[in-house]
Amino acid sequence: MKKIAILLIFGFLTFGIVSFSKSYFTPIYLDIPKGFPEPVYDFKNNPLSEEGFQLGRNLFYDPILSRDNTISCASCHLQQTGFTHVDHDLSHGIEGKIGTRNSMTLMNLAWSKTFMWDGGVNHLDVQYLHPITSEVEMDETLSNVVKKLQESPKYPSLFKEAFGTDKITGQLTLKALSQFVVLLTTSNSKYDKVLRLEEHFSEMEQKGYAVFKQNCASCHQEPLFTNDSFENNGLALDTTLNDIGRMRITQNESDRQKFKVPTLRNVQFTFPYMHDGRFETLTEVIKHYNSGIVQSPTLSKKLQQPMQLSDHERTELVAFLKTLTDKEFLFNPRFSYPK
Amino acid sequence: MLLKTYLTLVLLFNCLTSSAQAKSDSLLVRVQFKFDKAALKLNSSYISAQKDTLVFDKIKFYLSDFRIVYNDNSESQNVNTYHLIDIEDAESHQFSIGSESEKEIIGLKFNVGVDSLASVSGAMAGDLDATKGMYWAWQSGYINFKIEGKSSSCTTRKNKFQFHIGGYLKPFDALRSVHVNFNGKFNGNGKNQVNLVVDLGSLFSGISLKETNTIVIPGKEAVLIADELPNLFSMQ
């Protein structure tokens, strides 16, 4: 009897605490842009809140994630360039060490099933472990990150606001990062506005769109401009890197030199291009698909024939690709360094 | 609202478990580390059947999905629990498994490792938290069994050997199931506890460290080691 009474009291207390703490969270939701599919990310396991988003944003821009507190996520993922590292073919991390691949963009990741150029990561929440622990990126351990966050004057209260506890864990740290990253939606480019009948393509852009649909859209599928799959797009093997791509993960010969099909949104600003950043301009990229494809057993079936575009068509295609630029996204103060 | 429902459930669960404890029908499992006949400790040396001399720095592994087998061959419901056993953390060496029956207990079933569902479900809590150092960064998934140490037989840097056995994707799935039969050694009417022995000597009797000393990714080699893992477990 006594036990039941104690349990009841405990129960009421718990409810009291919950009702009280509930007022802390301000739920927010991912807006699914018109024409976009259902997101892949499971929000039930990580319900978004304004507090969680702001915590994740603080973590994203904080070098506390790296061993010597010098490198943040934003070091290689800059908002104004679609959250990638411009001007570097291979991205560099801690102590100026150079990685083996070009940093990826961070856009519309709520719709992505796999992450990294080789798809080795299967869930957005565990993506951050890679840069945090990589010897050439942040060279830190998650347990030490948690320790530093717990000891910082700033973070325990931010975790309390976001998750109702100031006991920081690896799980909560990773989920907080996702609360920010999963909301990096870009859907307000000229292309989107044309589709929403708010703007019109120029004649050149319209022709470029036709060229795109004919030659590129089977992999760079609208509206995300990726089909989230892996392809060998006919790049000659860089023998200084010998990167076998997807095959490193599956150990399957049929995946040799296959890499994630990247989104083309904001492609005007995400240079250099390809997994190893070998092309600096869109013109070079189109030239590759037009006449530079290297044959190999795993070459994408969609690239068996060169595009053979005329000079005009190539210019038109570039004009179309530039309509994928979303300045509202690239300069959205909500995604920038937290003040 | 969701949170409230969740907490109500937690509360109910608490009631249930506290009454279960009152009836003392749970089974206490104690993990004991051995190398052949000897008790296994870190930083002591052991000689394997392959004549390799080994010193261990780290032994950590997951045991999951425990089910109790009763004398009518029925099994307790699996409760999706994950136990990270770390030789350095004495607290992890013993844990209780709830039993729902008064029937005589004749064995235990469990898995060595973490199932594929948990491996694709993102950031997990408790023993599955990525801070435990058992989650791969470049290729998602848990390390099921981690053994690190040194042996003069290894021509690697600092004579190190490293076995990080895991992987959930077919055909290199490294999760293995174990069935330990108590063979009458356990008397269900007495104290409800068993000593679960894990014998690393058995594993290294089949590994020549000169040839095989570093397996840190999922694949064919990891699968061969994973196949041996169930044989390490026995009841004492």
Please outline the helices and strands.
The complex is a heterodimer of chains A (339) and B (236).
Chain A: H1 2-22, H2 50-60, H3 73-76, H4 124-127, H5 129-133, H6 142-151, H7 155-163, H8 170-181, H9 190-195, H10 203-215, E1 230-231, H11 247-250, E2 259-260, H12 282-292, H13 311-321, H14 327-330
Helix pairs in contact in A: 2-7, 2-8, 10-13
Chain B: H1 2-22, E1 26-35, E2 38-39, E3 45-47, E4 53-70, E5 82-86, E6 94-98, E7 105-112, H2 116-119, E8 143-151, E9 160-166, E10 176-181, E11 193-199, H3 200-204, E12 214-215, H4 220-228, E13 233-235
Parallel strand pairs in B: 1-11, 9-12
Antiparallel strand pairs in B: 1-2, 1-6, 3-4, 4-5, 4-7, 4-8, 7-10, 8-9, 11-13
Task: Please explain how this structure is put together.
Chain A has a two-stranded antiparallel sheet with strand order 1-2. Chain A has 339 residues and is mostly helical. Chain A is globular and about 60 Å long. Chain A starts with a helix and ends in a 9-residue tail after the last helix. Chain A has helices at residues 2-22, 50-60, 73-76, 124-127, 129-133, 142-151, 155-163, 170-181, 190-195, 203-215, 247-250, 282-292, 311-321, 327-330; strands at 230-231, 259-260. With 236 residues, chain B is an alpha+beta fold. In chain B, 17% of the residues lie in helices and 36% in strands. Chain B is built from 4 helices and 13 strands. Chain B has helices at residues 2-22, 116-119, 200-204, 220-228, and strands at residues 26-35, 38-39, 45-47, 53-70, 82-86, 94-98, 105-112, 143-151, 160-166, 176-181, 193-199, 214-215, 233-235. The longest helix of chain B is centred in the first third of the chain and has 21 residues, at 2-22. Chain B is globular. Mean pLDDT of chain B is 88; it is low at 14-24. Chains A and B meet through helix 1, helix 4, helix 5, helix 6 and helix 8 of A and helix 1 of B.
